[in-house]
Amino acid sequence: MGLRTALYEEHLALNARIVDFGGWDMPVQYSSVLDEHHAVRRAQGMFDVSHMTLLELTGPDAAAYLRHLLANDVAKLKTPGKALYSVMLNERGGIIDDLIVYAPTPEQPELWRVIVNCGTHDKDLAWMQQQAASFRVSLRERTDLAMLAVQGPQARATVAALLPQAAGRINGLSVFQGFDASDLGGGDWFIARTGYTGEDGLELMLPGAAAPAFWQQLLAAGVLPCGLGARDTLRLEAGMPLYGNDMNDDTSPLISNLGWTIAWDHDFIGKAALVAERDAGVTQQLVGLVLEGRGVLRAHMRVVIDGVGEGETTSGTFSPTLEQAIAFARIPVTDKTEAQVDIRGKLHAVRLTKPVFARSGKALI
Length: 365
Known about the structure:
The protein is an alpha+beta fold. It folds into 2 domains: about 1-280, Probable tRNA modification gtpase trme, domain 1 (Gyrase A, domain 2); about 285-365, Beta Barrel (Elongation Factor Tu (Ef-tu), domain 3). It has helices at about 10-15, 35-40, 60-70, 120-130, 155-160, 165-170, 210-220, 230-235, 270-280, and strands at about 15-20, 25-30, 45-50, 55-60, 85-90, 95-100, 110-115, 140, 145-150, 180, 190, 200-205, 225, 285-290, 300-305, 310-320, 325-330, 340-345, 345-355, 360, 360-365.
C-alpha cells in the first residue's frame, strides 16, 4: 500500500483505476483517458495533485537562497504571488528537478512556496537542506495541505462561482500568479493561475480536511475528474517535460529544451558547467516527433536521422488533439525535418517539429 492523498476515498467512490505513482496510490483514469483529455481541452477537468511536494521557505535569506539554488532568477518576481518555473541543478549542470516557485503575497510577505515532484521528494529535500546550511532560511513541508488542479477553458469561471468571496481575485489573476485566500475559512488556501496541461485554469492548495467537500462541489458543477493518464497526454501535447523521462541528473537544460529557464546574469549552482557546455557548442537537442503513419510512440525508441546520427525518444503517446502519435526525442543538433523511428525493428517515417504540439485547445503543427 502506498501513500494516500486526502481525496483517496473520493477516487474509490468514482471507481477510479488506482496505480502506484512515485510511492503514492493515485488515479490513472476514471472513465477513459480520451474523454478526460478532451474535457480539459474543450471544457473543464480536475486532477488530484496532492502527491506533489509543497514546501514553504521563510527567513531573511530566503530570496538569496533561491537565487543560489535555481537556474532561473526569483529576482524577476516583481508581482506578489507571481510564479516562476525553474530547474534546480547539480554542480555538473544536470537537472536534479524542475519546480515552481511562488513569490510572497501581501498576506504572507515573508513566505515563499516551492512545489517539487513527488518522485524526487527525498533527494530534493536532502539537496535543498544541504544548500540551506549557508543561509538564514527555514524549509517546512506542508503535508497537511491538499492540491487540486482545475483546468480547461471553463475552469476559472466555475471555481470563481463556487468561491464567491474570492471571485474578484480569481478573475483578476494574471497568468502564473497566485494569492492567499485565508478568508475562505478552514485554514490556509492559496489559489494560482498555473497548471500542467497547456490550458487555462487554476491550481489550489487547501487544507486536506476541506478537500473532499470542495471536490464534491466541483463534481456537482460538472467538472470531470481526470487521472494521471490524461495529465500525461495533455502535458506532452503542450510541450511540457516530465522529470525522469525528458530530463534527469545527467541531462542539462541546454539539451532538454529548457535553455529559456536559465537566467545567465546571476550566480547559481551548476552555472559554470552550463557556461562551458554553451561555449563549447551544444551537440544535442530535444525535439518533437509526429509519426506520419499508424503506430504507437513510447519512450526509449531509436530515432535515425540520415546523414546526422541517432537519438532516442524520451516520452511518447497518442495525441487526441492531433489524432496522431507524438513524442519528444533527444537527437543530434540538426535542421532536418524528417527522420525515422524504430518500432519493433522496423523504421517508420516521423516529422521533426518544435516540441509543442497543442495548447489552448488548438493544434500548433
